[in-house]
Amino acid sequence: MVVRRIDKRSGDNAYISVSVSKGSSDLYECLSNMYMILSILALSHVGVVYVNAKCASDLITMGDGMCVAIKEATDRYCKAHETCAALSQTTQQLFILIGLNHKLLDPNKIPTSALFTWTSVSDVLVHRGKAKEGWRDADPRNLLYASQLGDINWDDEQPDGNKPVVGLKQPNLRAHDIQLERIQANVVCELIKEATLETPRINQFKANFPIKLEQEKNDNEISDACYQRLMEPTLLKCSFLCNQNIQCRSVYHNLSQKTCVHILYTDARLPSAFRNIAGEWKRGKAKEGWRDADPRNLLYASQLGDINWDDEQPDGNKPVVGLKQPNLRAHDIQLERIQANVVCELIKEATLETPRINQFKANFPIKLEQEKNDNEISDACYQRLMEPTLLKCSFLCNQNIQCRSVYHNLSQKTCVHILYTDARLPSAFRNIAGEWKRYAKTSITVMKPID
Asked: Looking at the structure, do residues 382 and 410 belong to the same domain, yes or no?
């Protein structure tokens, strides 16, 4: 749930510790970095309004009723995107450069004056080399999705591994990886039928979304994505302007240089033009996506405004929220060696009872890219038991209202209960031999009305 208002009290301790933490990931937060060393912040979705629409007379119908507009060929990938974005502004309907729906195109309806047709499918976020899967397109409806085997109609011996964009080659529109510019290609803009343009809603920004990047700066200009550079002094204003632009996918901000970079159309690493600029590039500190110990909704993670952050907080390298005197503004603080008050909240509408049978699921609340924590300063609270079976390990967690998830190692007969707030496997177990299996409670059914 959220951080609740606490009456201000005087006292010697500078902080009040609360149960909000980054102990686990959710759909909108870092998938593998518990204590938020944040340098990239990406839109987790793009707000669109859903409507019903049919192909207009000035559009071309392709397979499955897909509507497209075929525009003048261009020799630059970003210019192809700009063409479709301009069409969106003119029609107030959302058009994107054709992406993973390219298999619905009819080759007989594509001009033959250019050898290739641009697509928005690229590997500018994560280099894929010769991999036939893991490529992403410009479709804003699911920014988490990366292609799977069969999604792209690759030609023989493709991709060849050294170019960042997918182009469709005549005459049969088979996919090749091609360069970002200096290649003349058709522009096909796909209409997103169920969407229309509007001033975007407030979108969630998350660090390490859709994945954690091992390398955030691009070092090769031949794979630079489309971007816009602005001079903005704050990350907040940089992010706000991205939110107002439906074509913006992510932001990079350099505080010392007051430089804001908007990545357009498809998410990507920081373009190579900025790699040698002094100062730290950040996507900011995630002020949302934190969890607390409230058992009434284990899926909930904080949203913007839920936590009363102090200025310049969180600083990004500590895993727990503490409230600092005198005004109880939120700071991220370390797990120990800091003296802090303890405030216990009564859940009025609940009473303790022997827990009912709770459902356990793997990959809840989402699939974790990294289940083991590798840094002891961000280890969550846990209990270690010697139990031979996952069933018994889970049963005992079910009996403990404070238990949130279990990790079990069959070969070592070791059971680990994660307590109070869900988290990754503590670092003390990271080098233990054998496979660890994780299951988390999907609900904690201990609530009943009090007479």
From this structure: yes
Per the DSSP assignment, residues forming a β-bridge with 71 are 187
What is each CA distance from 197 to 48, 76, 85, 294, in whole angstroms? Answer: 7, 25, 11, 38
Answer yes or no: do 127 and 215 share one domain.
no
Q: How many separate domains does the chain show?
A: 3
Same domain, yes or no: 164 and 236: no
pTM of the predicted structure, to 2 decimals:
0.51
Q: 13 in a domain, yes or no? A: no
The pair phi, psi for residue 132, each rounded to 5°, is: -90, -5
Q: The CATH number of the domain where 384 resides is what? A: 3.50.4
Q: Are 24 and 368 in contact (CB under 8 A)?
A: yes
In sequence order, the β-bridge partners of residue 406 are 417, 439
Q: How far apart are the C-alpha atoms of 58 and 71, rounded to whole Å? A: 12
Among 196, 224, 246, give the residue marking a domain's end: 196
HSE at residue 286, side-chain half, CA atoms within 13 A, is 36
Phi first, then psi, for residue 331 (nearest 5°) are: -130, 150
Is 55 inside any structural domain?
Answer: yes
398 vs 383: CA distance, rounded Å: 14
Residues 91-149: tens digit of each pLDDT: 999 999 999 999 999 999 999 999 999 999 998 877 788 999 989 998 888 777 889 99
